[in-house]
Amino acid sequence: MKRYEDLSPSLRCIMTPGPVEVDPRVLRAMSYPVLGQFDPEFTELMNETMEMLRGLFATSNKWAYPVDGTSRSGIEAVMVSLIAPGDRVLIPVFGRFGHLLHEIAERCGAEVFTIEQTWGSVFPPEEVIAAIRSFKPDVVAMVHGETSTGRVQPLAEIGRACREQEALLIVDAVATIGGVPVETDAWMLDAVVGGTQKCLSIPSGMAPITYNDRAEAKLLKRKQVERGLRSGAGTASELPVVRSNYFDLGMLQDYWSPRRLNHHTEMTSMLYALREGLRLVLEEGLEARHDRHRFHERALIAGLTAMGLELYGDAESKLTVVTCVRIPAGIDGESVRSMLLGRFGIEIASSFGPLQGLIWRIGTMGFSCRENNVLRLLGALEAVLVRHGYAVAAGEGVQAALDVYESNVR
Amino acid sequence: MKRYEDLSPSLRCIMTPGPVEVDPRVLRAMSYPVLGQFDPEFTELMNETMEMLRGLFATSNKWAYPVDGTSRSGIEAVMVSLIAPGDRVLIPVFGRFGHLLHEIAERCGAEVFTIEQTWGSVFPPEEVIAAIRSFKPDVVAMVHGETSTGRVQPLAEIGRACREQEALLIVDAVATIGGVPVETDAWMLDAVVGGTQKCLSIPSGMAPITYNDRAEAKLLKRKQVERGLRSGAGTASELPVVRSNYFDLGMLQDYWSPRRLNHHTEMTSMLYALREGLRLVLEEGLEARHDRHRFHERALIAGLTAMGLELYGDAESKLTVVTCVRIPAGIDGESVRSMLLGRFGIEIASSFGPLQGLIWRIGTMGFSCRENNVLRLLGALEAVLVRHGYAVAAGEGVQAALDVYESNVR
């Protein structure tokens, strides 16, 4: 039999838009022995996690819990549960992940309307509101922070318009939750999906979601108790039953409620990780955490600019936690990335679709978003660019970032 | 702000049909720092894991990889990808998880035919074969090991019949993989789904699957490259596109192939856990592992019988790794379970549907399946039963199990 070596992954400095480095406290949490899924100690941890998620999402919603899967499992769960086949769904697209929402909505059997914004900018809210008034959608689905372009879409006015027009607003906040403000209640977002492996700095594996009473009312119209658990007919749905069992939020909420109606087997170790990651976020405080992300973004931008590099996209819609940098003319972007990883142990990201080969994407998210990482990246990037024949004034990137750090004005 | 305590879960002896105790080597693997999803070190770990999964499933299939979710995510992924709306699907049901397959197939839009067997026994293969000949299904979906009743369904003849009748056979081997033989190729199973949190003794969170060329051929007829990644039209499907993006195996296999076409963000820490768990299985050897499970089952049964307890269900179809015990008349089964957990730190399982209140289910799976656990459970169960007024000849359960262990005849 072939021998497989002991696991011994290299230590990386991960400056991508996710997955990012994980706080050692979260890593330790995952190494604890497991509890059974209906052990009272475990269900208590589940309840605490729900409570903490309400804090994270800035909501008083009853429902806030993780879907067991990667971030897009949360997106699909919310969409397949809230979009009935034939529903009119409006999707404003301003980057790759808007296209993903389009794709998922189509697979849900929706009648999809899209409006598109040039990559690198976001929608003026009134444009989306006009589209809502003219298409009269049942559901609007939208990305908050687009990691493909490094932009953030203002949502407050769109939320209010959806409420007025009686559309449900689903928001993909995978890239923003825990890094920049996401105001579920204040912005009137009906369902929000977060991600673990970005600003929360927990390994990929769960997708925290929240939704309000308006969303729940729609779920309940599609509800069915599982065959093998129900006595009698089980279905009295006004709307077609959800096309997925795994992603049926009506069933998931019964599992997360005191009824604990058996569904999947909750991911014990990932729940430990999520709980510990949320503790870290709440101990730091949301506002302080958002400030921290802005502070390190400022240092990073100062450093990149001092090196003569240019940022991509509209400045006013820049997403704090993802900085897109134009690859200088004549430089092979992939060769730079691979030297950064191979020689310096630092990972930055390439890009998708129309931006491929044109920009690098640098993440400053969660635990990865710290002074020594930013300084390390700037120093290494300078060295690698010099090796690729790009003329950089030596040392200026790091010095400019140090200026920001020493000013200590947050 | 409310203070949340440090995580400190109690140490449990988990003798349920899952989730079960996790080997410390697997727990340690999860505490390693993460790698980026496209880091060459990480994709190498993905490839190794695929190789090990082929060994686990006893297959030379090209495709063997985990779906990122709990066990039922793997079941749903295989079903939604291989069952096109309108397909004829036969589901032989002999316990709760057969009903789950029925439910999922329905939600996939299938025309479902079920045959049912009394709980506590399995199907004579010829009965299923006759149903295949008469219903002429496109797909047959079946549970291998039914944890709700503790039975195991022989599959070899059914596999051959499906091949002859050109039906695809999907098998739920969540409870059996790594504990009792699952012969994917020899039994002609077209798609098999395993679970992590049972006989593999890895935390819940991934669902290893495998499927052969016949299954892949159907996937490819439903294939679509994701919006936002494709150039041009993207779809040229002969059959309707899969209703799920997250569970579309055609996309998942592109992500697991050398193309690494971006889909979800692979669960780093769970992959570390899966790889380490598979290493442990392959180091022990599949045959030795199956023998071990049979050996401890024998000791457990000897102990339970010596205590005057009665097993539930047909002896010849008993599933090695789950032992169902009739709750003696006049004993409150839930009170026994809760005293076992509260005083002794030992968890056993209750049961579903028609068996509720009638049986306990004891798991001997993976890392939980070891001598000191079996002896500890028998001693504790005796003490708890005495406390509940059930007359047990003192000490006999443990002595009977010790006899088996000391005989050391595997």
UniProtKB/TrEMBL annotation, chains A, B:
SUPFAM superfamilies linked to this entry: PLP-dependent transferases
Required co-factors: pyridoxal 5'-phosphate
Keywords for the protein's UniProt record, in alphabetical order: Aminotransferase, Pyridoxal phosphate, Transferase
Aminotransferase class V domain location: 38-350
Domain of life: Bacteria
MF (Gene Ontology): transaminase activity
Cross-referenced InterPro entries: Aminotrans_V_dom, Aminotrans_V_PyrdxlP_BS, PyrdxlP-dep_Trfase, PyrdxlP-dep_Trfase_major, PyrdxlP-dep_Trfase_small, SP_NH2Trfase/AEP_transaminase
Signal peptide feature range: none
Similarity comment text for this entry: Belongs to the class-V pyridoxal-phosphate-dependent aminotransferase family.
The protein's name in its UniProt record: Alanine--glyoxylate aminotransferase family protein
Native source organism of the sequence: Paenibacillus tritici
